[in-house]
Specification:
Blueprint lengths: L1 H4 L1 H9 L8 H12 L4 H11 L3 H10 L11 E6 L2 H5 L2 H12 L12 E6 L11 E3 L2 E3 L4 H14 L20
Parallel strand pairs: 1-2
Antiparallel strand pairs: 1-3, 3-4
Length: 176
């Protein structure tokens, strides 16, 4: 369990917060890093560490889209569906990804490589449509860019098209 495997890291996290409950998100991230998602057992263990009830941990874990409550593919594609990205084509992008991957939003491809999710604002409103893949941003997406990104990820495990996030306004010389 987490307590045994990450004893030192958990103690360091807890030492940062005078109110134990404040360590909830860092501990949820730790659990997610361990398994790729947050299991029910991990939520119960974290509840015990913080003297919370399991429902208190669950309500926090279900609030944030960056926390996964079930296993996801090797590459978690999170497409921003907020108004700004929708105005520049995120719905079309989601449709393109669903067609290319043969899955719907919330599903994982049969090969286990890709999970597609629609998420709320990722904070890159000036460079939409955009998506986050694992910890990397990909902005100003087109169908051609998405095709290349998917091919790069399948072949190399990474893509040179990752972008940022950009700072807004963009520095001089940034290419749209």
């Amino acid at each position: 369990m987490l307590r045994e495997k990450y004893k030192t890291e958990i103690e360091e996290i807890l030492s940062r917060y005078p109110v134990k409950r404040s360590a909830l998100l860092p501990l949820l991230y730790l659990a997610q890093r361990e398994a790729g998602y947050i299991s029910e057992e991990a939520m119960q263990e974290i509840a015990g560490l913080l003297r919370l009830t399991p429902p208190q941990v669950y309500e926090t874990a279900t609030f944030y889209t960056m926390l996964n409550l079930k296993p996801v593919g090797k590459f978690h594609l999170q497409v921003c569906k907020s108004l700004m990205c929708a105005l520049v084509g995120s719905d079309t992008l989601i449709g393109w990804l669903e067609k290319k991957l043969g899955i719907k939003s919330g599903e994982t491809s049969k090969d286990g490589l890709f999970t597609l999710s629609k998420v709320e604002c990722l904070g890159a409103c000036g460079t939409g449509p955009m998506m986050q893949i694992n910890d990397d941003y990909y902005e100003r997406l087109t169908e051609e860019k998405v095709d290349r990104i998917l091919a790069d990820l399948k072949r190399d495990g990474t893509s040179a098209l990752k972008t940022g996030p950009f700072m807004w306004p963009e520095p001089n010389g940034a290419k749209p």
